[in-house]
Sequence to fold (85 residues):
Amino acid sequence: MQLGRVIGHATSTVKHPSMAGLRLMVIQPLNATREAEGDPLLVPDKLGAGVGSVVLMNSDGKAAREFVGNEKTPVRWYVIGIVDE
Fold:
């Protein structure tokens, strides 16, 4: 699991069918002191996080496939929670 801050969202006219209906968020991973660490990630979100929200992401491949309901999905990261600040 990894903390991240939503810094934007992405719009895609063509994407894998397993991602239909998912909102794609651009998320900056954060370290333990909530400072930016690494490159931003494109992460699907079903919870409704907004720009500026701190979220909890997971990178478990099996759980990601269950999250989108497709065994062939390219999704690796996904939002599993919104941090209440």
User: Anything to note?
Assistant: The chain has a mean pLDDT of 93. The beta strands are 2-10, 23-29, 41-45, 54-58, 78-82. The domain at 2-82 is CATH 2.40.50.220 (OB fold (Dihydrolipoamide Acetyltransferase, E2P)). The helical segments are 61-68.
